[in-house]
Amino acid sequence: MIESIDQMNQIIRLGTIPRRIVSLVPSQTEFLHALGLEDEVVGITKFCTHPSEWFRSKKRVGGTKNVDIEKVKTLQPDLIIGNKEENSKEDIEALKSICPVWMSDIYNLNDAIEMMRKIGEVTSKTIQSTEIICKIQSDFNSFFNQSNTSESVLYLIWKNPYIAVGKQTFIDDMIQRIGLTNFISEERYPEVDFSKLENHPDHIFLSSEPFPFKEEHIEELQGKFPNSKIQLVDGELFSWYGSRLQYSVEYFNSLHI
């Protein structure tokens, strides 16, 4: 018997090491690949684009917010891995009737590390997960010690309306670790009305996802914020809280801050 407490404090019990896994979160899907679970992962979402070979070959079970429950049933999984924010409560409750569902709940780097450690344990890939975790922790520990700027940044993830990243988010934790202050004081993902801003941010980051900001949007916003440094940023390296974090610090060092 394998027993694990997930990040929503639910006890997950498995008869054996899982052999048929459905992953409902892109960043966690990529992490499962990094653990070497090629044969074990049988289903992913249409947004699980990494690794590309899995995106092409694995069965897709709908989106993160609208999982096709019947498709999941046909895959006969013995473990489903989801996330509180990414997946809908209704879908998760329905999926629990199929097999155990291990849920992550991630707001910062420490949460991400815990998720990787626990999934490594439940899939019997502790050695592989520990290697990944050690690389990430080493990178961030050295990077965090060098961060000393207190300039502000407005991190935008959507247009029409403009939506920003606020407090109590994983991206906010990454912003702090870079050494910047989040321009947004509200929690989660508030809509931003530029006409009501009393001050302007020192930096504006335009994320590559979920809205695909381009160079043309820099020009558009530069007119509204002439004194802000505006740049496109890789949203995956800011928000994917799995094995992709191995490459985040190197990327953060390349930003114009």
Question: Care to describe what's here?
Answer:
The protein has 257 residues and is an alpha/beta fold. The chain has two domains: 2-140, 3-Layer(aba) Sandwich (Rossmann fold), CATH 3.40.50.1980; 152-254, Nitrogenase molybdenum iron protein domain (Rossmann fold, 3-Layer(aba) Sandwich), CATH 3.40.50. It is 37% helix and 18% strand. It contains ten helices and twelve strands. It has a five-stranded parallel β-sheet with strand order 5-4-3-6-7. Strands 8, 9, 10, 11 and 12 form a five-stranded mixed β-sheet that branches. A two-stranded antiparallel sheet has the order 1-2. α5 (109-122) packs antiparallel against α6. The longest helix is centred in the middle third of the chain and has 21 residues, at 126-146. The mean pLDDT is 96.
Features:
Rossmann fold; 18% strand; alpha/beta
Percentage of residues assigned to helices: 25-40%
Name the helix and strand elements from N-terminus to C-terminus, one letter apiece.
Answer: EEEHEHEHEHEHHEEHEEHEHH
Strand order in the largest sheet: 5-4-3-6-7
Helix and strand composition category: alpha/beta
Say how many strands there are. 12
Total individual domains: 2
- The name CATH uses for the topology of the largest domain is Rossmann fold
How much is the average pLDDT? 96
Oligomer kind: single chain
Low-confidence stretches: none
Strand content: 15-25%
The CATH level-2 architecture of the largest domain is identified as 3-Layer(aba) Sandwich
